[in-house]
Design a protein that fits this description.
Elements: E1 2-5, H1 10-20, E2 27-31, E3 37-41, E4 49-53, H2 60-76, E5 81-86, H3 105-116, E6 120-124, E7 139-142, H4 145-156, E8 161-165, H5 171-180, E9 186-192, E10 201-205, E11 212-220, H6 224-235, E12 240-248, H7 254-259, E13 266-269, H8 276-280, E14 284-287, H9 290-302
Helix pairs in contact: 1-9, 2-3
Bound molecules: ribose-5-phosphate.
Length: about 300
């Protein structure tokens, strides 16, 4: 087996390789003067089972292109099987047409990865489970929930917890985490905008007064969803609010927004490499998913069960 990485998240790729006790494949992914990407694999991968670690976070298009070109390099070097390990699958939020004459970019990206020559995909907390069906190659969707649940138990286990989905779309994810936390109660933030131009009203479904709330979501991007949900929960009597989010996209002024928010802390995974600002924040903490992804890779290579990781 070979573990190869693009430039998107080298610390995670190194940690996965360390978990598997194998060195990262010697390869360089460079830019020409005009920013074209050039990949060179410096060791033999002929006949190898290659796992290519490359989440497609910021800069999304560059990282996606690196992934496609790395796959092509592996294919042309006669790798036996290529698995695109994409812990954060960018473009996933574009999984349907939000209006007429708009693209379904998640499907296009799935097609690109397949056409480039990937034989399998390994992702973590896809924005919507059905994105698996966008690929006509085997696709494993791992869940960060076990890693998060263990951390929540260790850090907040003594408190009177309530798991909260910050929107109606995230209820299934939140319920799955609540189940892992000894069936903790569940609440939902229901955002409503009655008329265009009017500000959003946040209705809380569930009795959060006196509870320590744990917000669960797949993505924190601008941080707006989280910070507004935290305000609404506290206004409704919650004692404290912390957030556990798999993918720290954290665009623009998100870190400053989180730092200035009423969140006790924001816990993210390292599916996307943390920026300097995120690392410097004393409100943001990262949990590594390297052992989870590493174990899934080991099981794919051994042809043993991946789903049993989540039993
Ligand atoms: C939306 O469906 C996602 O699950 C997240 O809630 C959303 O992407 C968060 O975005 P932001 O942090 O910009 O509010």
């Amino acid at each position: 087996m070979k573990i190869m990485s693009g430039n998107s998240n080298l610390p995670l790729a190194r940690a996965i390789a360390a978990y598997l006790e194998i060195p990262l494949t010697d390869a360089s992914v460079r830019r020409f003067a005009d920013e074209e990407i050039f990949v060179e694999i410096h060791e033999n991968v002929r006949g190898e089972d290659v796992f290519l670690v490359q989440p497609t976070g910021y800069p999304a298009n560059d990282n996606l292109m690196e992934l496609l070109i790395c796959i092509d390099a592996c294919k042309r070097a006669s790798a036996k099987r290529i698995t695109a390990v994409v812990p954060y699958f960018g473009y996933a939020r574009q999984d349907r047409k939000p209006g007429p004459r708009t693209p379904i970019s998640a499907k296009l990206v799935a097609n690109l990865i397949t056409e480039a020559g990937a034989d399998r995909v390994l992702a973590v907390d896809l924005h919507a489970g059905q994105i698996q069906g966008f690929f006509d190659i085997p696709t494993d969707n791992l869940y960060a929930a076990p890693v998060m649940a263990a951390d929540i138990q260790a850090r907040y286990g003594e408190r009177d917890l309530m798991v909260v989905s910050p929107d109606v779309g995230g209820v299934v994810r939140a319920r799955a985490l609540a189940k892992r936390l000894d069936n903790a109660p569940l609440a939902i933030v229901d955002k409503r905008r009655d008329r265009p131009g009017e500000s959003e009203v946040m209705n809380i479904i569930g009795e959060v007064a006196g509870r320590h709330c744990i917000l669960i979501d797949d993505i924190v991007d601008s941080g707006g969803t989280l910070c507004n949900a935290a305000d609404a929960l506290l206004e409704n009597g919650a004692k404290s609010v912390a957030a556990y989010i798999t993918h720290g996209v954290l665009s623009g002024g998100a870190v400053a927004r989180i730092d200035g928010s009423k969140l006790e802390e924001l816990v993210i995974s390292d599916s996307i490499q943390l920026t300097e600002a995120a690392l410097a924040s004393n409100r943001i903490r990262a949990l590594t998913i390297a052992p989870l992804v590493g174990e899934a890779i080991r099981r794919i290579a051994d042809e043993s069960s991946v789903s049993s990781l989540f039993d």
